[in-house]
Design goal:
With 240 residues, the chain is α/β, with parallel strands linked by helices. The chain is 46% helix and 15% strand. It is globular and about 45 Å long.
Length: 240
């Protein structure tokens, strides 16, 4: 039985913006999934401590009023999510996040912002692993497929039902199911041990970033820079 049929932990954040180093957590979800079926879930609503821009509200539907009235303090939410994820990593269970570099970098920035132990600190100095990122894997195994690569589009490609896009719980569940579906279609992925798959994704993401950066520079953006670090980008002090 491959890793894709064992326990997977779907993870997703909905946030105040698109810069993972500056945006804040609004909602978060961690879903236990086995063989595509949800086994348990944890969900959080945070008061981010800053105004949620209208364009972000339009995406995830959480208003400033609701976040302020019902949300837990941002530091409590960030710490709780980190504790839950770390508990799975310590036992070797893969955490699945679509475009993991965004969610894990944002969570790490929140931990630093509130003076809380980092993910690495909580793991005794180790880096967060194993992580499974369907976004990174799909681009590798089907690199020439045309069309968008957002969660909705890739779920459609693999026949995964996404009930409510940009709902953290729905996205987390879809990410886990998508990881299993990609592995089922591509036996070489299914055959990899989670630790080996994690290391391969580091290489695949860096190669994609270099290729995309070169493409942009050829197309007239000579100063384009694409960060190839995965699954956790370096936190620049001025962004936190």
């Amino acid at each position: 039985m491959g890793w894709h049929q064992e326990l997977l932990i779907g993870f997703d954040l909905e946030t105040t913006g698109t810069d993972p180093r500056a945006a804040r957590i609004v909602t978060g979800a961690v879903i236990e999934v086995r063989a595509g079926e949800p086994m348990g879930r944890r969900e959080w609503l945070a008061d981010p401590g800053v105004e949620i821009p209208a364009d972000a509200v339009a995406v995830h539907g959480i208003s400033n009023e609701r976040a302020a009235a019902e949300g837990r303090p941002a530091d409590e939410v960030a710490g709780a999510i980190a504790d839950v994820l770390v508990s799975y990593w310590k036992t070797g269970v893969p955490v699945v996040a679509y475009n993991a570099a965004f969610d894990l970098t944002l969570l790490s920035a929140e931990l630093r912002r509130h003076g809380l132990p980092s993910l690495s600190d909580r793991l005794g100095g180790a880096l967060p692993a194993p992580v499974v990122d369907p976004y990174t894997i799909d681009r590798r195994v089907d690199r020439y497929r045309r069309g968008k690569r957002n969660l909705e589009a890739v779920c459609a490609e693999y026949g995964i039902v996404l009930d409510a896009a940009h709902n953290a719980a729905a996205d987390a569940l879809a990410a886990a199911r998508l990881a299993s579906a990609i592995a089922a279609r591509h036996p070489k992925i299914a055959a990899m041990a989670p630790a080996d798959l994690h290391r391969s994704q580091i290489e695949w993401y860096a190669e994609w970033a270099e290729d995309f950066q070169n493409f942009l520079r050829r197309k007239g953006e000579p100063d384009a820079v694409i960060d190839g670090t995965w699954p956790l980008r370096e936190l620049a002090d001025e962004k936190v």
